[in-house]
Amino acid sequence: MHITANSSMPSAKRHQHPMFAAAHDAALMPLDVPAAILRQPAAIAPLADMVAATRSLLNAWDRAMSSWRANPMAPARLDDAVTPSGFDRAYFAPTDSPASLPGGGYQPTRDQPQRQLDRAAAVARLGHDDPVITPITQTNGLTAQMLDGFQVWLDGQPLHELPRGKARSLLQVLLLQRRRPISRARLCAMFWPDADTAAARNNLNVTLHRLRRALGKVNLLRHSDEGYQLFVPGEVWLDVEHFMLNAELGRCEEVAGQSGAAITHYEAAVALYRADLLDAGEHEPALAGESQALRNRFNEVLERLSVLREQVGDVHGCLRAALRHLTQDECNEGAHQRLMRCYARLGQPQLAERQYRTCVTALRLQLGLHPSDDTTALCRRIARRELV
Questions:
Q1: DSSP states of 63-92 as a string?
Q2: H/E segment holding residue 236
Q3: Which residues contact 154 (CB under 8 A, 6 or more apart)?
Q4: Strands 221-224 vs 227-230: parallel, antiparallel or unpaired
Q5: Which residues of 18-40 are buried (b: 16+ CB within 10 A; e: fewer)?
Q6: Of the candidates 131, 126, 167, 127, which has an alpha carbon nearest to the alpha carbon of residue 150?
Q7: Per-residue model confidence (pLDDT) at position 27
């Protein structure tokens, strides 16, 4: 008799059939069955394999979760670790999309315990609850500043002879990816995607030699079977990490309805972000994606900061954040609208109208578009001296 998985055989008789008995027993057998018992009947040899495989999977999962919890920079949730791109995917995880709340606030879709867990995880990754806006020079470790030029301190002393060109970019990549080794093949693909394998490997060897020579006696670069990695025996402070973590803490506080705490962390993130990872006109494919990801997150922080400042009635604070936002994205209509409202509330309608003309010009030159109806209607309301 031919029996298939979708057979109409009753479930009671299905368990009596030899074909289903083994699978049924496997589902009921505990994982701690002694191996000697499993080996006795030859008929249940596949069952022993199933139990052994299940036990191996569970052990592997326990080890993975233990490693995950032990990593202070791990994402707060597993789904935060899977993002389109980024050296350290935990830092470049996208935030929730703005919902239809007043001022474009975030929709608090998660329950309060989950929000508390998210915030606690972010605080644990940051190491403390107080925002830090200036580099902390480690007396026993490494400090790297990458969002205001590129500077490195080791054990409190600056490294003056930093490498240039590809060696400099390689050092930045290794700093951003310091928690895991990068394979030789991946480095070759990142820095020399168009070169053949032999040429790319030779270029990498030359670049590694230059980097080691620039670091001098400081033996920070380690090589293993898994790849290359920076090894720092002491503490490490990176402004990129603290920018992203303050941005994440600000998001957690905003979702929890704590506007004051969210503003504090957003301001700390803005203070740390003084310049892009890549200077204007600088082209390095290995860092281009991460530089754009950081820039996008910075724009997001500025938008949320200006929205919260406006919501709490801080007109001047909203002005500062919106003006900084427009230096990054001059076509952002939301920032233009917030500036227009701020100027109107300060009794400067002429400045609001001038801001509208600036918005019209930027959209036409950059995108070939006209302002939205909302922006135009706001300008007309201000011109009629209506409250906005």
A1: HHHHHHHH-TTS-SSGGGG--SS-SSTTTS
A2: strand 235-238
A3: 141, 142, 218, 220
A4: antiparallel
A5: eebeeeeebeebeeeeeeeebee
A6: 167
A7: 40
Residue 118: what residue type?
D
- In angstroms and rounded to an integer, the radius of gyration of the C-alpha atoms of the chain is 28
Spans in the chain with pLDDT lower than 70: 1-51, 60-139, 217-218, 280-281
Distance CA 34, CA 190 (A): 50
- Nearest CA among 13, 147, 125 for reference residue 70: 125
Half-sphere exposure of residue 364, counting CA atoms within 13 Å on the CB side? 7
Q: What is the pLDDT of residues 334-371, one digit of tens each?
A: 999 999 999 999 999 999 999 999 999 999 999 999 99
List Cβ neighbours of 45 (8 Å cut-off, separation of 6 or more).
Answer: 39
Q: In the numeric block, which tokens belong to residue 359?
A: 């918005």
Please state, in angstroms and as integers, the Cα–Cα distance from residue 30 to each residue in 17, 21, 59, 61, following that order: 22, 16, 15, 18
Q: What pLDDT is stored for residue 77 in this prediction?
A: 41
| pLDDT at residue 44, as a whole number | 52
The DSSP string of 169-202 is: HHHHHHHHTTTS-B-HHHHHHHH-TTS-HHHHHH
CA–CA separation, 267 and 279 (whole Å): 23
Burial (CB < 10 A; 0-12, 13-18, 19+), residue 229, is middle
Name the residue with tokens 């368990």: 15
- For residue 380, give every residue at least 6 positions away whose Cβ sits within 8 Å of its Cβ, in sequence order, or none: none
Domains and CATH numbers, the chain: 22-52 (no CATH), 112-313 (1.10.10.10), 330-388 (no CATH)
- Residue 25, SS3? helix
Cα separation, 167 vs 210, whole angstroms: 6
> In the chain, which ranges are continuous DSSP H helix?
11-16, 18-28, 35-39, 45-70, 112-126, 165-176, 184-191, 197-215, 239-255, 259-272, 285-311, 315-328, 333-345, 349-367, 373-383
Cα 351 from Cα 334, distance rounded (Å): 16
Strand, helix or coil for residue 229: strand
* Distance of alpha carbon 177 from alpha carbon 179, whole angstroms: 6
Find out whether 246 and 92 touch, Cβ atoms under 8 Å: no
